[in-house]
Specification:
5 strands, three-stranded antiparallel sheet, mainly alpha
Length: about 475
């Protein structure tokens, strides 16, 4: 069948017929059965409600202006300058330090305002990931503005036949950074700019390199898909576009699960568990795919690149020994550096200035880390849910649920050493505490990210192809 532009079909018709045809075309606009953006939830067909909302003014959404794109390129260029000035060759340069400090307010302010300057688009065209990226880049610029010393690269070492990222002393790290030509400086800058976990840097954590075979990495990727697909299917099946909410209990009933007392509680827990697994699996699938590609490199590069592609998490999928272990090992560590630098260190410094003991300083550091984590997740959601969203977020009126979820985790981490010893090991001990606390608080977060209009953009992947 030949598909012609609308103007071709209506050309030659009389004015009344043309107006009628245009009206009909407008009424079915965006409802084609081949549109993947409409493949959201079985409830959508039953309720007959479109998942999009148009600007209240009735005017078409405007695209991103060329001026905005030019500003974005300019700000990214300034960030690259900030990044480059952290090279060891500028270690004793006062002007380099002052330049980083002077660029900070402009860059940070621009990225924080960026989500509110993006054009208003229908739900299916909004990209929540870009909102998160703006917040992440603002946190990165805060670090590069106030970092005191240069950053040094480190190399992957072999310990007892296994590749390992080890902590290095300042003198040992600086001896590996003697190259200062422009080509090496440019490569150094790009690697720092795109680094998230910091394995190649002296400030990065200790970690094991990748020792999996190609078949092992492929099997793990398949297993992650097998786990994620049913979780994501249940989450989408629970959505209802009539009120932009989700009903996991209704979804279970429609699948033939008999009704009984406590089904609502079970459905809510299942929804939270599926959301957390879907998020973790999506991160690991993206990372695992990039890791799998390193096995396809030429022989001279494959082994080195494969070993450097460390695991995204350092704990088995179902290991839950404590909240500290969950957030420090089970969950991904892609933004750990930003949370520690922007939240943990300032909070510990303030506690030390006020005369707090080492335990108080450590507790304040934990609160600071989770406070910044809550900000990273709440701020983009606040910008995303602006009018004409059917349920817009209002400052000081809408409950900042995502922020509260991460904020209360800090108190769980601080208090668990006092609580876990009183839980009998026969009933699970630490695991019971960890699972109970997470399931009790998770709806604050899972209800936010899996609501209709956000879930298709809320399952994160990765900001960069960072393998270390």
């Amino acid at each position: 069948m030949c598909i012609l532009p609308p103007s071709t079909h209506i050309r030659g018709r009389n004015p009344q017929s043309r107006r009628a045809l245009l009206t009909k075309m407008q009424s079915i606009n965006g409802t084609t059965t081949l549109s993947l953006k409409r493949l959201v939830s079985p409830w959508l067909g039953a309720n007959g409600t479109s998942p999009s909302w148009a600007p209240t003014s009735g005017e078409p959404a405007q695209g991103i202006s060329s001026r905005f794109l030019s500003e974005k390129r300019f700000i990214l260029s300034l960030m690259l300058i900030q990044c480059a000035l952290l090279h060891p060759k500028f270690q004793n340069s006062t002007s380099a330090r002052l330049t980083r400090l002077s660029l900070g307010p402009l860059i940070i302010g621009w990225w924080l305002c960026c989500p509110f300057r993006l054009p208003v688009l229908p739900a299916e065209d909004r990209n929540l990931i870009s909102f998160f990226m703006a917040t992440i880049l603002a946190l990165k610029s805060i670090e590069w503005t106030f970092a005191t010393g240069p950053y040094h690269m480190r190399s992957l070492k072999t310990v007892q036949g296994a590749p390992v990222w080890e902590k290095e002393s300042e003198s040992e790290a600086s001896s590996n950074n003697n190259k200062t030509n422009m080509e090496d400086l440019f490569l150094w800058t790009i690697m720092l700019f795109t680094s998230e976990r910091g394995f190649r840097w002296s400030w990065g954590p200790e970690a094991k390199g990748n020792t999996r075979s190609f078949s092992g990495a492929l099997f793990e990727l398949v297993w992650l898909h097998v786990l994620m697909v049913p979780c994501l299917g249940f989450l989408l099946y629970s959505q209802d576009w009539t009120d932009y909410h989700f009903y996991p209990q209704r979804a279970l009933l429609s699948m033939g699960v008999p009704s009984f007392r406590g089904l609502g509680l079970l459905a809510g827990c299942l929804h939270s568990v599926c959301t957390l697994f879907a998020i973790r699996c999506s991160f690991e699938i993206f990372h695992g795919t990039a890791t799998l590609m390193t096995y396809l490199l030429p022989d001279g590069q494959s082994e080195s690149s494969t070993q450097q592609a460390s695991h995204l998490t350092s704990a088995p999928l179902f290991e839950l020994s404590s909240l500290a272990h969950f957030w420090g090992k089970f969950w991904h560590q892609k933004y750990r550096r930003a949370f520690v630098f922007c939240g943990g260190k300032p909070a510990m410094w303030l506690a030390r200035v006020l005369g707090g003991s080492s335990k108080v300083q450590k507790a304040c550091g934990v609160v600071g880390v989770f406070t910044i984590s809550g900000f990273l997740h709440e701020y983009p959601m606040y910008a995303f849910q602006q009018e004409p969203h059917p349920y817009p977020r209002k400052l000081f009126k809408t409950l900042p649920a995502s922020f509260l979820f991460f904020f209360v985790q800090s108190f769980g981490v601080i208090l668990e050493p006092l609580i876990i010893p009183y839980i009998p090991k026969q009933i699970g001990g630490p695991k019971i505490w960890t699972v109970s606390f997470l399931l009790l608080t998770a709806p604050l977060f899972t209800g936010e990210v899996m609501s209709p209009g956000r879930s298709d953009e809320s399952i994160p992947t990765s900001s960069t192809m960072d393998l270390g």
